[in-house]
């Protein structure tokens, strides 16, 4: 990774950036952080892009409104040249304008249409009222058949006849939910002097003003006198009721209705034509929409990038600063050259200039789709400090392995593997499917992790000889039961001994163990044993310890690598050595004892084999008893040797605690002497030197380069570096107390951590035990019920019982247990493994890349 | 204490939302950038980088101040209504109380509008959406306050406030202002009592804010009533009695007849003394209204310092309104190329 300076011709800059964007390996730095977004150079272009985006969004909503398909382009369109931008703008403008015109026309037509529809309903409904009234007015002999409503109507008419005063009326349409309030208001304002009839329009009606689909009600208000009429009209206005004229005379009403019908039919024809036209325009647009969107997005990104550049007026060029991987510099040069050519014979080609900086560069890992997932696991803890060892390649293997140790069941492993394989093989077609389903994207993103986890689980399952909690007897057990029937009948349980020294009736016993162990994994005969758990616990616990300590030791050696790379020689002697010696003295020794016990004690001596746990405790307490046989020593001279180890380990604590701060004090002193000497000796030279120094520092400071002031990273060389010393000298003295505190914490953390982390690795055993027990419980409580029944009933029961068993297996054992094992494995890596060497204080490399840009913001957003 | 324990059970989500919304209020740095804008387009670009996001993105150029105003109001209303929708009792009643003030404003707006012969269709869109109610449109029916009451207001929550203004006089402009003040007085007192009844921190915070609101109204009524036909007794009836001025200060305000006298009354109350001293009538000075606004902002900001109370909802809405006024002020200054007074907005943070 190197900091580069780019000198770009203003004309060529655009196409150069476009090429770099396609390449996507350069991270630009903002050189004008203090400038407001609207005061930057290319803000007008950005604004034009936003305007285009707005128009495209408008087009898209219109297309979506008509439910037309939007075609995704197969190829990736290049960012158009600045000249084409004008064409694009013109095209969009035209389309936008055209569509808006169509819309206004259609809106006017539609409003007309809706009004007519309302009028039509109004007429048909009021027709009903008037017919009722007419009926009521016909001779009175059918009066007793009428309901009370008709009575009212009739009263109304009678009243109008008596007073010789024609009643006025207003008809109209009002949204149904406002009807109640409307009615009450009418009644209040007119003091009950109006008569209201209403009828609900059965279908949804589009409101002429807002265009929403609403339930509406037709109403007729009868009243008397001008004043009431005014009031009713005002109320109608207030409630936004649409009032429609309705002739009083039935004949005119019929004519009006006819007229409305014909006009409606005409309008339908016109409307469908406009709709067709609109469809054609939109269909043409929808084909290009995505391409356009990508193009505009690219233009906008380019101008945003160019806004970050420094504009050098005097030299007529743009200056950019960027981080780029050293190995990719050739490709960048090539892209720049291509860019300059594309822009049409830029006389001066763009210049790429590597710069020296003290700033920490961003961290960039070359990844592929397989390693990506694992890198994400590591990065979730912290992005690696620049050039620090990246634990990803090791995590790649250890993570699925530790997971599998906890998840050890070949049957479950196969299911997981099949699921992961499906995702991996169908990768292409699944990639864009369910993109918005968060849970799915998590699974899909980790498909290779899941695949490895599945495969490793099959392996550990075979070692544990566990398939859905049952053992496979592939090679034939090494054990035979040769008791006679009478012996078996007498005892509830019998003991199989590899070396039957307790029994005297010898011939049978000798053949119970064939002498060669089961070729791979656990002997299936343990499946029948009462003490299976005792046995597997002992084995799994020891393995957990072995795996854990090995991994921690490995982590320590990785820290050695870091020290070597960063040239922190003092750290090797003052940190790495005490750490590794401490670990070796206590924990590596424990591993050796484990192996020693495994190899040197066989069945005949099993009962009085020394206990490892007691031994470890006694070793630290310096107590060597002989009382129970399990406390006996493994070998002669053990006491002396162990005492020596403990003393050595204890010695490591002050070594590490004091080493580094003392070293630092010495270095400070030495440097102080050095600088005073040089200052006194070379009075004149120092001026020159300082000048030189200023020259070096000034431009860097102007650009806001942060000088590296982190204590832990400044090592021997940095400290001797005289350029640095002037500025940092003062700082270091102040920070000495901080160094002490930090080193104290660091020391305590490591030594206590060694013990607690070793204990923490026992989760490997605990989870694996839990998993095995859970799956056994599931088998025995559920599936066993069906399988143990006789006859046809058993078949049917098995059928019914399989469903709960399989779903519980998937949900509890695969998903929940899998998740828990995953989290524990993650914790073991983050806390127990990475804490030994990984700082994770870097920041990620975010290249300017069109591909990333288009991926992260899906086009439909 | 018990209230604090159980507060989050019902109102925790709404409070969290409200505090989240509040953190989107523009900071001094944002204002600093806003006043540097040359055109409204710049303003839009800058607002994009704040919490407002893309709220103007779909507006065609050229942008006008009216569009910005509409969008700002829309956004505020949307946020408030979201809060109202997720609220439980008694928070929802509290939020409803806040909207009553807007109802009063709307009613007065419509009545004055109709007095000036404006069509109801033009007036309705200008009403504040928070204060709209079903019968609002029919307000033009009424010619006298009595009719207004029986026809329109009787079904609204404002009905009890209106009891004092029922009369058979015709509606004219002075009348309308009196109605407004009476309604406000009744409303503020009712709201004040409601907050008192809620008790706890809500009462502490809200009563302080409402008391200030009441006093501000008393001051403004007094100042605005000089040289009008309003008698001292009529004026005294309009003073809300839930403020710090009640009862002595109000008595004295009743007797004042010029600005200096008002200032004398205020000088007896330390919190108002500062405000009146800081204001002036010269062109460069801040007006007393601005001073009041600043004080209001301060009170509202203080509301956010306490937890487990409803005051923040009120305070948030008020702050948001102030922010909208600020943005509109800046936008107007930009649009009219009147940059000299662009800094006269009222800073919030």
Task: Describe the 3D structure.
The complex is a heterodimer of chains A (861) and B (349). Chain A has 861 residues and is an alpha+beta fold. Among the domains of chain A are: 1-31 and 321-362, no CATH class; 115-137 and 153-258, Alpha-Beta Plaits (2-Layer Sandwich). Chain A is built from 26 helices and eleven strands. Chain A has helices at residues 10-23, 43-65, 82-137, 148-163, 179-189, 226-238, 250-307, 329-342, 369-381, 392-406, 410-425, 427-431, 438-445, 447-464, 485-490, 506-510, 532-566, 569-600, 612-621, 638-681, 683-702, 716-720, 722-760, 763-787, 791-833, 850-856; strands at 2-8, 27-28, 168-175, 195-200, 205-206, 213-214, 216-223, 242-244, 310-312, 317-324, 351-355. In chain A, the strands form three sheets. In chain A, strands 1, 2, 9, 10 and 11 form a five-stranded antiparallel sheet that branches. Chain A has a four-stranded antiparallel sheet with strand order 4-7-3-8, sandwiched between helices. In chain A, strands 5-6 form a two-stranded antiparallel ribbon. In chain A, strand 9 (310-312) and strand 10 (317-324) form a beta hairpin. The longest helix of chain A has 58 residues, at 250-307. In chain B, helix 10 (200-225) runs antiparallel to helix 15 (288-303) and helix 15 (288-303) crosses helix 16 (311-335). The two termini of chain B are 30 Å apart. Chain B has 349 residues and is mainly alpha-helical. Chain B has a domain at 88-194. Chain B has helices at 2-22, 28-34, 40-48, 65-85, 91-115, 120-123, 145-152, 159-162, 173-198, 200-225, 232-238, 248-255, 259-266, 270-278, 288-303, 311-335. Chains A and B meet through helix 2, helix 5 and helix 6 of A and helix 3 and helix 7 of B.
């Amino acid at each position: 990774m190197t900091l580069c300076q780019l000198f770009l011709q203003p004309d060529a800059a655009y196409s150069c950036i476009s090429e770099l964007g396609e390449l996507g390996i350069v991270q630009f730095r903002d050189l004008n952080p203090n400038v407001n977004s609207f005061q930057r150079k290319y803000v007008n272009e950005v604004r034009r892009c936003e305007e285009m985006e707005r128009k495209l969004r408008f087009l898209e909503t219109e297309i979506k409104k008509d439910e037309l398909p939007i075609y995704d382009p197969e190829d990736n369109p290049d960012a158009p040249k600045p000249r084409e931008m004008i064409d694009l703008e013109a095209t969009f403008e035209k389309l936008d304008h055209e569509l808006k015109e169509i819309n206004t026309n259609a809106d006017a037509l539609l409003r007309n249409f809706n009004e007519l529809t309302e009028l039509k309903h109004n007429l048909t409904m009021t027709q009903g009222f008037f017919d009722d009234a007419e009926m009521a007015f016909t001779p009175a002999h059918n009066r007793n058949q009428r309901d009370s409503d008709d009575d009212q109507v009739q009263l109304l008419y009678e009243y109008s006849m008596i007073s010789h005063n024609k009643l006025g009326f207003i008809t109209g349409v009002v949204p149904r939910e406002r009807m109640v309030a409307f009615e009450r208001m009418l009644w209040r304002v007119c003091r009950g002097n109006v008569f209201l009839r209403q009828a609900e329009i059965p279908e949804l009606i589009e409101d002429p003003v807002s265009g929403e689909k609403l339930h509406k009600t037709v109403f007729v208000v009868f009243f008397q006198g001008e004043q009431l009429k005014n009031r009713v009209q005002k109320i109608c206005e207030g409630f936004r009721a649409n009032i429609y004229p309705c002739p009083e005379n039935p004949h005119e009403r019929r004519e009006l209705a006819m007229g409305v019908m014909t006009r409606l039919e005409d309008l339908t024809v016109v409307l469908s034509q406009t709709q067709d036209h609109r469809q054609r325009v939109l269909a043409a647009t929808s084909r290009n929409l995505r391409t356009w969107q990508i193009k505009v997005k690219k233009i906008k990104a380019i101008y945003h990038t160019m806004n970050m550049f420094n504009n050098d007026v005097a030299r007529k060029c743009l200056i950019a600063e960027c981080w780029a991987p050293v190995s990719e510099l050739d490709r960048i040069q090539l892209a720049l050259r291509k860019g300059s050519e594309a822009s049409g014979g830029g006389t001066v080609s763009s210049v790429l200039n590597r710069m020296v900086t003290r700033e920490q560069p961003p961290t960039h890992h070359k990844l592929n789709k397989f390693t990506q997932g694992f890198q994400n696991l590591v990065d979730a803890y912290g992005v690696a400090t620049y050039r620090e060892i990246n634990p990803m390649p090791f995590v790649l293997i250890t993570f699925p392995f530790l997971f599998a140790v906890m998840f050890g069941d070949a049957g479950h492993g196969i299911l997981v593997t099949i699921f992961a394989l499906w995702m991996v093989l169908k990768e292409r077609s699944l990639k864009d499917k369910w993109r918005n389903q968060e849970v799915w994207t998590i699974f899909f993103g980790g498909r290779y992790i899941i695949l490895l986890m599945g495969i490793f689980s099959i392996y550990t399952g075979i070692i544990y000889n566990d398939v859905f909690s049952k053992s496979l007897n592939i090679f034939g057990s090494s054990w035979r039961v040769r008791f006679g029937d009478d012996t078996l009948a007498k005892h509830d349980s019998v003991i199989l001994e590899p070396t039957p020294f307790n029994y005297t009736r010898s011939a049978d016993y000798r053949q119970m163990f064939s002498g060669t162990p089961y070729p791979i994994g656990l002997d299936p005969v343990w499946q029948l044993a009462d003490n299976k758990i005792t046995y597997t616990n002992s084995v799994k616990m020891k393995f957990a310890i072995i795996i854990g300590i090995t991994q921690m030791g490995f982590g320590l050696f990785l820290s050695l690598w870091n020290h070597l790379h960063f040239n922190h020689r003092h750290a090797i002697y003052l940190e790495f050595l005490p750490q590794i010696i401490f670990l070796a003295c206590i924990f590596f020794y424990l591993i050796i004892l484990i192996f020693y016990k495994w190899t040197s004690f066989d069945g005949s001596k099993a009962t009085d084999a020394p206990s490892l746990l007691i031994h470890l405790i006694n070793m630290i307490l310096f107590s060597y008893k002989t009382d129970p046989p399990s406390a006996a020593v493994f070998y002669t001279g053990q006491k002396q040797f162990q005492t020596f180890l403990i003393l050595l380990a204890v010695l490591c604590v002050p070594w590490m605690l004091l080493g580094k701060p003392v070293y630092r004090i010495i270095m400070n002193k030495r440097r102080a002497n050095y600088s005073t000497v040089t200052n006194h000796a070379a009075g004149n030279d120092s001026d020159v030197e300082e000048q030189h120094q200023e020259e070096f520092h000034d431009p860097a400071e102007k650009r806001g380069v942060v000088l590296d002031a982190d204590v832990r990273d400044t090592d021997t060389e940095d400290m001797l570096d005289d350029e640095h010393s002037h500025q940092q000298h003062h700082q270091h003295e102040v920070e000495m107390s901080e160094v002490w505190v930090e080193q104290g914490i660091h020391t305590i953390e490591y030594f206590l951590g060694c013990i607690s982390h070793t204990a923490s690795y026992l989760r490997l055993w605990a989870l694996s035990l839990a998993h095995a027990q859970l799956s056994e419980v599931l088998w025995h409580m559920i599936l066993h019920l069906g399988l143990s029944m006789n006859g046809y009933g058993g078949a049917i029961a098995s059928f019914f019982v399989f469903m709960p068993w399989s779903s519980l297996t998937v949900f509890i054992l695969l998903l929940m247990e899998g998740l828990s094992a995953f989290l524990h494995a993650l914790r073991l890596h983050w806390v127990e493994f990475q804490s030994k060497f990984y700082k994770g204080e870097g920041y990620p490399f975010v290249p300017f890349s069109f591909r990333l840009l288009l991926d992260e913001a899906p086009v439909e957003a | 204490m018990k209230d604090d324990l159980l507060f989050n059970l019902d109102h925790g989500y709404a409070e969290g939302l409200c505090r989240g919304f509040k953190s989107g209020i523009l900071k001094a740095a944002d204002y600093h950038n806003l006043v540097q804008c040359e055109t409204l387009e710049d303003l839009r670009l800058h607002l994009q980088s704040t919490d407002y996001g893309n709220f103007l993105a779909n507006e065609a150029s050229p942008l006008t101040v009216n569009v910005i105003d509409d969008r700002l109001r829309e956004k505020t209303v949307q946020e408030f209504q979201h809060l109202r929708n997720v609220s439980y009792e008694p928070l929802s009643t509290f939020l409803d109380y806040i909207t009553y003030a807007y109802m009063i404003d709307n009613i007065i707006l419509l009545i004055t509008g109709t007095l000036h012969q404006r069509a109801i269709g033009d007036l309705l869109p200008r009403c504040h959406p928070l204060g709209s109610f079903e019968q609002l449109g029919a307000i033009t029916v009424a010619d006298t306050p009595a009719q207004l009451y029986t026809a329109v207001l009787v079904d609204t929550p404002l009905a009890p406030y209106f009891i004092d203004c029922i009369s058979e006089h015709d509606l004219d402009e002075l009348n309308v202002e009196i109605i407004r003040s009476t309604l406000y007085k009744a409303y503020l007192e009712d709201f004040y009592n409601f907050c008192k009844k809620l008790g706890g921190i809500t009462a502490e915070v809200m009563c302080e804010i409402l008391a200030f609101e009441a006093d501000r109204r008393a001051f403004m009524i007094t100042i605005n009533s000089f040289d009008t036909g309003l008698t001292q007794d009529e004026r005294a009836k309009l003073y809300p009695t839930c403020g710090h001025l009640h009862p002595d200060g109000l008595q004295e305000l009743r007797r004042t007849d010029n600005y200096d006298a008002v200032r004398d009354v205020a000088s007896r109350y330390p919190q108002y003394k500062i405000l009146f001293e800081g204001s002036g009538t010269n062109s460069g000075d801040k007006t007393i209204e601005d001073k009041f606004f600043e004080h209001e902002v301060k009170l509202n900001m203080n509301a956010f310092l306490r937890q487990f109370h409803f005051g923040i909802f009120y305070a948030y809405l008020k702050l948001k309104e102030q922010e909208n006024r600020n943005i509109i002020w800046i936008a107007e200054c930009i649009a009219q190329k009147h940059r000299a007074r662009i800094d006269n907005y009222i800073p919030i943070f």
